[in-house]
Protein 1
Amino acid sequence: MPTAAYGRWSRSRMLGRGVACLAEFLLISWATTALFFDFPIAAARLAAAVIYGSLFLSVLVISRDHRRKLGVTIVAFLCVLAWWLSLPASNSRNWQPDVAKTAWAEVHGDNLTIHNFRNCDYRTETDYTPHWETKTVSLSQLRGLDVFITYWGSPWIAHPIVSFDFGDQGYVAMSVETRKEVGESYSAIRGFFRYYELIYIVSDERDVVRLRTNFRNGEEVYLYHTRATPEQARIIFLHYLHRANEMREHPEWYNALTNNCTTNIAHHVAQTRAGKEVRWDWRILLNGKADEMMYERGDLLGDLPFAELKKNSYINPIARATDVAADFSTNIRKR
């Protein structure tokens, strides 16, 4: 083989081995982390992760047969993946009080009854009295929908809440969240594994919005009005509740990448665009920029430049001023 051709072949071979080693390392890392977070015997999680990770990292270091090494790593990963995918979500755990019940709904003609409509009475973020109410609204009174975007640190990551305007019957806020057990807190890393169940919280804005503006430290909330028509809002609203009813019978895992607050909203909104292509956008994942995405698509009301619209949409000061008032929802819209 000519020297130049041999050199190219050698570099390609080295590159291929480098890519294979990286793939092997990533597969071992994911499986090890899955065992650490999700192994069914809590006391054995660390041991299971250490044994698996040590064993297969040793294979990477010791083995000289690159094909066999890659094959063993893939087979071991697929075994862990098959086990991980078989883990069942549950609605029967020792839940924190604010997620102890799941919302569900019944439709009777124009009237819709929401059960387990949450309306917590907060004294602090962690000191509260949960109230689970029954709320009836008329679908014919649905006027449109608003979107709240909540930031708690990074401008790239946020939590969206969709709220439906029923006029004199009030607002129905929908928040897709992790359903945490007693003693659990949110972890971004754990959110990629089967650690939290998913929950659809259906609530009063004085609960799910006021919690973020008035009680949680460092959370900044923006309220945007959308151009959704009453018919579009109705389709999205009913689709939300249909999914809430489904999860009451068939619980699901939360996943920070594939089954989270924003991916679910995108799925519901897609129902209003039957027959039309739904455009994928990277800001569905990095949802701190979702308001910018909606603005560019023409989904938000207001003819101001985006920076000015966002500035005017900030509601923390007025939410704190109105606090527990019965007209909380009306006041936060007076900006």
Protein 2
Amino acid sequence: MEELGPLLVSVLAATFRVAATLVFCAMAGMFSERSGIIDIGLEGKMLAGSFAAACVAMVTGSPWLALGGAILVSCGFALVHGLACITYRGNQVVSGVAINIIAAGLTIVLGNAWFGRGGQTPDLPPEARFMPIAAPGAATAADIPLLGPLYANVLGGHNLLVYVAYAAVPLAWWVLYRTRFGLRLRAVGEDPKVVDTAGISVTWLRYRAVLIAGLLCGFAGTYLAVAQNAAFSPHMTAGQGFIALAAMVFGKWRPWPAMFACLLFGLLDAIAIRLQGVALPGVGQVPVEAIQALPYILTVVLLAGFVGRASAPHALGQPYVKER
């Protein structure tokens, strides 16, 4: 039992850290898809944001400027997606896949050209990163069995962007369900013709939605490169954008259920990391590749059999042509 406490604290702390990226991306996808725009490009925007954040942090030494750079680059990709899907009414899935491919290739090419390290950026010093913040009174509470470590390492001990990620969930709920903008955003994802008839610009609403998605992907990218890690490495998002999309669908395009789905994926990932190299009774040592595949297997299993009937916004993926 004495060993179980530290293990529980370690797993829970890692769950909140790992899930923060997914929460940012799930909220981003939710805003975009609630407006009727499919956003397969979450992965690419997050990857481009990670690269921009690492580069800006290395040059300026400021994590805040790194965050601003990541948001600008991510929003730039979001505008490209909006231009293709909203203005020119192109295929939204193809546009998102193209963004993923461009971001994956461009970050490697630029990283290799600028730093000559196979696409990886140099390691960042602590002052150029968002570092963990100690919880108030954590040292005093450390002697309390279980509760002290839980307070110090699960509720506290994270960097600023982890807290921003979870604060974004109630904020997203409030914007979607308690503001005029949120009402119009949900309406344009269900029936854009009705919104247009009311004299509201469908195009402008959808552009604002994809820009919010770009903003949140910039936060996610900054978290990966400047907070959770100390550098950018090629393909460091490792499919987390797609897992966030799955969490959003699992949560049926609602903020709170999507967050809990992200925490579920984060928990499995945290457990998988600790299972590497461990011999299980009657099974032996599980291959590392099988352990690393667990979050992705869970994604498929949940979407295939346990989600139930997920009702997407009715106008999702359908370009709107204004009647004259």
Protein 3
Amino acid sequence: MRRQLILATLAAFIMPAMSLAAGQQHPADTAQDHPAASAHANAMAGAAGAARIETCTATTNTLIDHLEKGDFMAATSNFDANMKANLDANKLGQFWKQVASHVGTLQGRGTPQNMMYEGHAVITLPLHFEKGDASAQVACDADGKVAGFFLRPASTPASSG
């Protein structure tokens, strides 16, 4: 028993020395900064993300304001180049009029939800129309420009039965 204990103790000391001699890095070579440094970086990234979300929320509300007023040129004024190329004021106006023909006029807005996704601030804004609800989803790029706009019908609860 004593012999096994001595061998186990020797193995505990010899194995790390052998692995270092076999070309493994010294622990100091892979040392990382104190967590406080990354916490500071995360806080700064969090503050930047929060500012981008706040900007995108304001952009989303302005976009919906313009749609509600029927000012489709102003509604597209904060679109990025790709959005402008694919959804000009004319197309957006036709789309919004089609929405109104199905669900009526916009009656109110809910509380926006937000998140950061693949470098974009994404705002989901519940919209309440005369005949139903929908969610507007707006993605803003790093410059605060609208890089995506979707309008989805609100999900309906599953029927039990």
Protein 4
Amino acid sequence: MRMRFVAVIAALLLAACAAIRAQKGQPVRADGSEFTNLQVLPSNISHDELIATMRGFARALGTRCDHCHVENPPGSKERFAFASDKKPEKNIARTMLRMTRTINNQYLKRVDEKGQKVACITCHLGHPEPPPPPPPPPQSEGAAPPKS
């Protein structure tokens, strides 16, 4: 019985060593090398960070991946052609990201000591296009118009 136990442990140890050796033989892949055509997001963004960022965009705009990304033909390995720039919404998103960075880094930094920042949700409020502002309150008769 003891001999079987030792044999099983030895076999597991050999299998683990073989697995480690095989893993070490795999080529090292840089973290960001799987993504192409990143123009605004950092090129070394991790997969998890990219997915979290995209999900944040989707929540802020009330959309899904197909809002900015082109779908591949049925039967393709990937559902979307993420690197494609065929949809104008993708370039609009890039422009909006640059705009929010500028607002946060050049303007809010100067006036907001709390460090608050604008993000997609600030204006979009869960809609693909920001909703229109509310109408001005009705003027009562005889009241002077508001001063600018």
